[in-house]
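Dear colleagues,

As part of the handover before I leave the project, I'm documenting each prediction I ran so the next person doesn't have to rerun anything. This entry is a single chain, and its sequence is reproduced below.
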Amino acid sequence: MTELRRELTLYGLTMVAVGSSIGSGIFLTPSQIAGHLPSPLMIILVWALGGVIALAGALTFAELGSMFPQAGGVYVYLREAYGDLFGFLYGWAYLLVITSGAMAALAIAFAYYLGFIVPLSDTAIKVIALLVIVVVTMVNVLRVTAGGMLANVFTGLKLLGIAGIVVIGLVWGSSETMSVEPAAREPSSEGFLAAFGLALVGVLWSYGGFQHASYVAGEAVDPRRTVPRAMILGALIVAVVYLLTNLAYMFLLPVSEIAASGSVAADAVQTVIPFGGTLIAVVIAISVFGTAGIFALSTPRIYYAMAEDGVFFRRVAKVHPRSRTPVNAILLQSGWATVLLLFWGTFEDVITYVVFMDWVFFGLAGAAVFVFRRTRRDTERPYRTFGYPVTPAIFVGIAGWFVINTLVERPLHAWVGLIFTLVGVGVYYAFKRQAGRAAG
């Protein structure tokens, strides 16, 4: 069988980790977060906590990535720690809920922000969103280096754009806007943890992505070393970028105005530059397009790995004979994302159940480090988690608290994700029965 081509370097993998995180979140979630936590200090704290969680996760997953340097990433970790069913459910949830939904949302966001520059009808927005999915799909089908180049170029461009926002905010803004808050108030003591947890939904949506470097380990150069380093570097870069960006926002707008804004970055920059809204719309369009391209590059490798293991449609494991990319896995994900464009809800609704399911599996994957330390003591580990066992315990503990809080505060969103995922249990056993009959 044709094998995947190993061409992704440390720089390319780091750009995948950074680019998968810095997408629409830093532009779309600040108003939602400010609505839950109407205090500059609390906003900085929740974004800082997100950075700590992401770094703890990257440090934890880095050990797993050094142990299993093959395509599939978290899917492989769950499968090896808990069995085929858990690995399958992760891939199933990523296909039907998490990544396809995120791709559809990013495509719509691209078209929406393009509409700030060139007026578009609702039909035109849908058509452009579909075109975004088609373009990023074809780029990643052609060759993995083409997808990696897309990640490098667009991640670099959006980091330059965000750097512009940070410079404008910190140089021309003022810290006085952080204290001029006549309507601001701290959340009540009874509701603080709940409010903090709900604000964390947007934060974790924004930070999620460092693990994408592990999905393409099968196409990385020296994956045992480059994959762990890429995840850790990616988490650190994203944390610094997000903290500086939020400071810039609050140096330009009071928190009450951030909470009321539908386009925080544009409104913030426009206080200094009259045409700032248009410039920021360009930056956001570039950002979400690049992130959609990274999702088309990285997560289809999960479905490819599942098909290779015989727990998914065998055709999904097909590798293009010329470009040597998992062509059917890429087309499957993009096809489902296209379907979701026709049945979409609000941005906040979508990210709530997407992030909820994502962090159910993140918590399980983080706990896998403890499992392997006990069951695979002799397995080679070029990298060992810094601060073990405290670091993975922090990650798993916060992930568990976040999942429980979301289940209590947003039960509809959580149960939709859970039911959607649990349907995969029946699908998994159907594949197992089919495989058993074929073997017999």
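The chain has a mean pLDDT of 81. The CA atoms of residues 71 and 216 lie 5 Å apart.

All the best with the project,
I.
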